[in-house]
Amino acid sequence: MRTRQILCPTDFSETAFHAMGYAFEMANFYSVGIRLLHVVDKPFGDKHTRVLALTPEELASRMEAEAADQMRQLIGTLDKGLTVEGVIRHGHAAEQILVTAEKINAGMIVMASHGRTGFEHFLHVNIAEEVANKAKCPVLVVK
């Protein structure tokens, strides 16, 4: 952990920004870099019109472009003293987080949990729980 990059998945939510704070603290403490990761899931409709007015490929391309723009803006606001990379992947979030962590030999994954409970937890896939259970490196889950 002390010499390897920290992987910090983000969905650009407030909770993810909160987790990022922990990732940056640890990266500063250990003098390691951070890789921010955003996973674009399969498109299921345009977020503005709520209907599929484009082909799935066009929609995926639009989603990737929006994510890339958000990633550039985010990295532009960060402390320049750290080495920060932004990466965008396609697919299932937990799977892509785990693959990326192994690929870069991450020292740790720091990620947010949206803290769903009860019926809401049952209806939504818990990405943080899946990553924590399957990762080969330490995982810090932040609420």
From TrEMBL:
Entry superkingdom: Bacteria
Domain spans labelled UspA: 4-143
Chain ranges passing through the membrane: none
Entry-linked InterPro entries: Rossmann-like_a/b/a_fold, Universal_stress_UspA, UspA
Record-stated family: Belongs to the universal stress protein A family.
PANTHER family from the UniProt entry: SENSOR PROTEIN KDPD-RELATED, STRESS RESPONSE PROTEIN NHAX
Protein name per its UniProtKB record: Universal stress protein
Organism this protein belongs to: Shewanella eurypsychrophilus
Organism classification: Bacteria, Pseudomonadati, Pseudomonadota, Gammaproteobacteria, Alteromonadales
